[in-house]
Protein: F0F1 ATP synthase subunit gamma
Amino acid sequence: MAESLEALRSRVDSAVDLQAVVRTMKAMSASGITQYENAVSALDGYFETVEQGLVACLKQTELLHNAAKSGEHVPVAVIVFGSDQGLVGQFNDTLAEFVQQKLTDITGEKKIWVVGERMYGHLQDADLALEHCFNVPGSVDGVTPLVGELLLATEHLWETGEQSPLYLFHQRPGKLSGQYKPRMHQLLPLDLRWQKALQEQVWTGPSLPETLGSTGLTLRALVREYLFVSLYQTCAESLASENSSRLVAMQRAEKNIEEMLAGLQHEYHHQRQEAIDEELFDLVAGFGE
Structure:
């Protein structure tokens, strides 16, 4: 049975309203991608400064021999960056599967911190022991406080002076729009190969670097900054991937709405014309009588 003109008009109006919402969300996602990508780029210069500081320290001291501890009961810090909003496709699902797969290859007592309620739910359903759930930042301004909370939450693992392993899991943007790929990054320990590569870097300045005060204290401060920048970049990349996924979903939704709206408007005008024709026929018939 054909819908009434009033029902069709109502469906057309609803589709138009939904189209406006989708366009707004699409614009917000596009803006989000730009701001998080810019945040990552802006940190490149600071990261180079921190790295140069590490080079200066390591040129004046022996390599750190506090290698990671090993064993089934050794604490292993794991931070997973997910999403706590919808309309992101398989963003959380693919990352959760990746985390479960990779964690089986990591030995030790795993302590898992999760960013994003939806990701927390996925990992909880997989019977993983989770330490805490953090809210996903709503803007670039919220990334720094989150990174500070993550450092505070995990720093007790290094109170003994030994570097327990630290693994980061997140979605990383792909080359094309809407593409992302799960990534595992082992941030700690600062292995000897990494330290030696820094120590062997050629200093570009006119004189050899020299640290003031305690080299050990300076080195620990720089390592903390290294951790901060790495966590910040990881979080920003995850948020850029999330917004990219949402942008593609909104583009797909916008196309579907346009097709549905075109069909509804065609049906509405067709039925409206039929109603007008019927009224004209009735008038003509009545005039003839």
User: Anything to note?
Assistant: The helical segments are 5-58, 91-103, 117-125, 143-154, 192-199, 215-288. The beta strands are 75-81, 109-115, 130-134, 166-173, 180-188. The domain at 29-246 is CATH 3.40.1380.10 (Pyruvate Kinase; Chain: A, domain 1). The chain has one domain: 29-246.
